Sequence to fold (282 residues):
Amino acid sequence: MSLLRIDTSIRAEGSQSRGAPVVIELWTDLGCPWCYVGKHRLQRAIDRRPDADRFQIKLRSFELNPDAPREPESIESAFTRSHGGNAEAVLSAERRIQGIAQREGLAFSLDRLNANTFDFHRILQHANEQGRGLEFFSHVQDRFFAGELNPFDPNALTQAAGTVGLAVDRVLEVMAGQDYAEAAHSDRREGQELGLSGVPFVVFDRRVAAPGAQSVEVYEQILEQVAPLTTPMGAQ
Amino acid sequence: MTTPSVPLQFAASEPAGWCDPETGVCHLPEDTSPASTPVDDQVSAS
Fold:
């Protein structure tokens, strides 16, 4: 087991008491398939609990490929351009992830695009500030993986932001400038300081970290660890 | 103001899919089934 000394100030106020809010931080990127699968597994684990409403998922930015071009390209083109190899190997792996996602009831299109996600993360930071981060991220990512939304089209992304209740004028202003750039960079640094070496990366109540897309059952066990529903024998 | 710190525990976990920021490669979880795709193919672009 790895141990790391960390700042506990991110914990929800009163998180030591029974029934108090618990903050779950999810470092993630838009186009990462395991981030998509992992977020839904985490949400499913939370939804299975009678006290589901005490858990607050906070989306943290982690741009997987800061050097990705702004111009969208197909997934296989992006991978073969940067890594070589052949497109069929990429599509083969994509089909395997697609099978896993579909067995879990998630739409998964192989026709997704790939491009730089930094502007998306800046709007995510704005959405977080407005208390709409989870709604914004989920709305865009779910439709992106379903093949229903091109998040690299500024008009489509702005419309999606408006759908979840963000002020469109402000979103356009953010997209046109560099607002929230430092917040997005800061999230990335903080994740790495906590031991993140890949995404998704989930930190529960600043006490337990879970790297990768864990199963629903593993997430359930961690939720029980940080917020027990049962009281051990002999405990008050 | 100094804030208290506690150890962050890394949960015991099962093999999990994840995406690597160093390489841009997304890895499938280990698959021991006979029909599994060769390891070299168990990657995807992020």
Summary: Residues 13-17 of chain A have pLDDT under 50 and may be disordered. Chain A has one domain: 22-226.
